[in-house]
Design a protein that fits this description.
The protein is mostly beta strands. The chain has helices at residues 2-27, 110-116, 306-309, and strands at residues 32-34, 49-51, 69-73, 79-86, 91-95, 98-101, 104-105, 118-120, 129-132, 157-166, 172-179, 182-189, 191-200, 203-210, 234-237, 251-255, 262-272, 285-287, 292-296, 312-313, 317-320, 323-325. It folds into two domains: 32-97 and 277-325, Umud Fragment, subunit A, CATH 2.10.109; 106-272, no CATH class. The strands form five sheets. A six-stranded antiparallel sheet has the order 8-17-10-13-14-15, with no helix packed on it. Strands 20-19-4-3-21 form a five-stranded antiparallel sheet.
Length: 329
């Protein structure tokens, strides 16, 4: 009898443990959403699967961070994916396409530009030089050609380049970039490097980093080469007036001759930043309550977001987007 009781207890314990494991497995399963529409293009496109982290229930207690993408519940009960740009208690404004918090534009870091920037066709290059004069660049999206909106000129434009140099590991060469009237220079060792520079959020920004042996093999949706660092190596306030007629700033990239390293430009791509628009009513500034956030779409011309709804209660945020599976081409 004693053994039967022990066996029964063991079976009960095994059943409880199994149910607990099943419950834990269910709680640990990411929440997955299929993307509809292009309001978060180019990073999220129709048919993509956006997933939370492995414990989606924990997102209810997670404090939102600026520029995280979240699945939220809209006022009519539908689910939408937007980017959190304003945090509780802040005063948020949109000015000339930039996000302004308090009195200053918020500078996007390189990994966010890789996700949110729109790739564009670049002018041709030579092995040692690439230049683009001022030109009009509009906030259109080739994936959304039929939308009836007035296109706006985008000021924040830059380039991404892959540069290769032969020679011994000790060999070095110089690379110069110019954005408007601001020049940036690097001394790079032989190998493959990414160089990125442009105008962004009221700044001239630039950074260079070493690429792997495969280089910039595929662009995909990103406007930057793989592996951008967390911060810009140069970020200085824009020092001059805007170019006339809404033109982008002139851009230039030059590889200087070096006896020890044969540096050359292998690829240059142009990118533009997301150009956030004020509300259709003309409202361009919002003050957030102590438990509210401000959300925007990455493709503002196609997005309904806090410009239309106003600030969103923190409780409306359901799941932070932690991973994306692109739709099959």
């Amino acid at each position: 009898m004693g053994h039967s009781i022990v066996t029964k207890n063991l079976r009960r314990a095994a059943l409880v443990a199994g149910l607990a494991a099943a419950a834990l497995a269910a709680c640990a399963r990411p929440a997955v959403y299929e993307v509809e529409g292009v309001s978060m293009a180019p990073g999220l496109l129709p048919g993509d699967l956006a997933a939370s982290g492995p414990f989606p229930l924990a997102d209810r207690w997670r404090s939102p961070r600026r520029f995280d993408r979240w699945v939220l519940a809209t006022a009519d009960g539908a689910a939408a994916i937007k980017r959190v740009v304003g945090l509780p208690g802040e005063r948020v404004a949109i000015a000339a396409g930039d996000l302004v918090v308090g009195a200053r534009p918020v500078l996007k870091p390189p990994p966010l530009v890789a996700e949110i920037g729109m790739p564009l066709a670049a002018p041709p290059l030579t092995a040692v030089a690439w230049r683009m004069p001022p030109r009009e660049i509009l906030d259109d999206d080739p994936r959304d050609p039929g939308r009836a909106v007035v296109l706006l000129p985008v000021r924040d434009v830059g380039f991404s380049a892959e540069i290769v140099a032969d020679g011994s590991p000790a060999a070095a060469f110089r690379v110069r970039a110019r954005v408007g009237q601001t020049a940036i220079a690097w001394r790079l060792a032989a190998g493959r490097h990414a160089v990125v520079a442009g105008r962004l959020d009221g700044h001239v920004v630039a950074v260079a980093w070493r690429l792997g042996s495969e280089g910039w093999a595929e662009r995909g949706r990103s406007c930057l080469p793989p592996g951008p660092p967390a911060e810009w190596s140069a970020a200085v306030p824009w020092p001059e007036d805007d170019p006339p007629d809404g033109l982008s700033p002139p851009l230039e990239l030059v590889v200087e001759p070096a006896a020890a390293a044969n540096g050359r430009i292998e690829r240059v791509e142009l990118w533009r930043d997301a150009h956030w628009r004020p509300a259709a009513t003309g409202v361009a500034a919002w003050t957030l309550g102590s438990d509210a956030v401000f959300v925007l779409g990455d493709h503002p011309a196609a997005s309904r977001d806090s410009r239309h709804w106003g600030p969103v209660p923190r409780a409306a945020l359901r799941h932070r987007v932690a991973g994306v599976t692109p739709a099959a081409p």
